[in-house]
């Protein structure tokens, strides 16, 4: 049964208490030469400053003659209140045919990552990601084939700052067959990816021994829900020693029990977070 991807919201409460994969919006835009039409006000000044740093970085990259380069520098904001560390890196990261430019901005309260390709009309943004420090900690990113289609994808990893429990997230941007653009971002909680199977397994948000595991499958630029697994409980809220496999999370519409098990399937025993699921 296909699961309908939900549009991403930055609210950490909805992130931490939902196990469903979410779609993170990617803003596709051309780099322009001016921001003179932007009307600054008190609420937008910080955003405008951060945007201007990206504009400056793309200008630096556009002037480069080589497709492979790296550059780092620090920008002090006009009021000297803080600094933004900027990393530019261009190379054939995803394909031998098209170089991609990756710009990272480490600002006081956010980490921003933007990916561009060069076209005959200039630099074109093909993916973007931002992580707020107040709600999450950026832990790194990687380039690899995550869905088994033999194309290298981009994965941003971060850890939720609020709430209890295990909350390691991955935002996945799939490289499309044109080898230049990316899909919208998919957000997974506590995932373990199996590209050869085109499967994602993981542990939902919840207390140790009290939460669910999930199993999803890539379906092009969509994700199908295959099953959820969790401990069966009796009317006294005590574990019976059995596990339930269902098509949806408990209390969901059209919820259906698929089968009862006496032990955790072997395919789940090596995923990240399995000890959390078991309550160890």
Automatic annotation (TrEMBL):
Q: What is this protein called?
A: Repeat domain-containing protein
Lineage, uppermost ranks: Bacteria, Pseudomonadati, Bacteroidota, Chitinophagia, Chitinophagales
Q: What is the superkingdom listed in this entry's lineage? A: Bacteria
């Amino acid at each position: 049964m296909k699961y309908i991807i939900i549009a991403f919201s930055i609210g950490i409460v909805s992130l931490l208490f939902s196990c469903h994969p979410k779609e993170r919006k990617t803003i596709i835009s051309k780099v322009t030469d001016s921001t003179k039409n932007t009307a600054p006000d008190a609420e937008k000044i910080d955003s405008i400053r951060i945007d201007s740093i990206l504009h400056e970085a793309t200008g630096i990259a556009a002037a480069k003659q080589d497709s492979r380069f790296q550059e780092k520098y620090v920008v002090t904001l006009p009021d000297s209140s803080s600094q933004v560390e900027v990393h530019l890196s261009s190379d054939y990261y995803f394909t031998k045919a098209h170089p991609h430019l990756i710009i990272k901005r480490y600002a006081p309260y956010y980490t921003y990552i933007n990916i561009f390709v060069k076209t005959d009309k200039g630099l074109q943004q093909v993916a973007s990601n931002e992580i707020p420090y107040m709600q999450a900690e950026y832990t790194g990113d990687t380039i690899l084939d995550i869905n088994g289609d033999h194309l290298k994808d981009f994965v941003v990893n971060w850890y939720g700052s609020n709430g209890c429990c295990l909350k390691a997230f991955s935002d996945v941007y799939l490289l499309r067959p044109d080898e230049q653009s990316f899909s919208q971002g998919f957000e997974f909680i506590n995932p373990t990816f199996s590209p050869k199977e085109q499967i994602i397994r993981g542990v939902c948000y919840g207390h140790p021994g009290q939460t669910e595991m999930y199993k999803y499958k890539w379906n092009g630029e969509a994700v199908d829900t295959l099953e959820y697994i969790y401990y069966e409980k009796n009317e006294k809220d005590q574990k019976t020693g059995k596990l339930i496999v269902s098509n949806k999370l408990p209390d969901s519409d059209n919820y259906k029990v698929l089968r009862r098990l006496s032990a955790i399937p072997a395919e789940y025993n090596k995923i990240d977070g399995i000890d959390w699921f078991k309550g160890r």
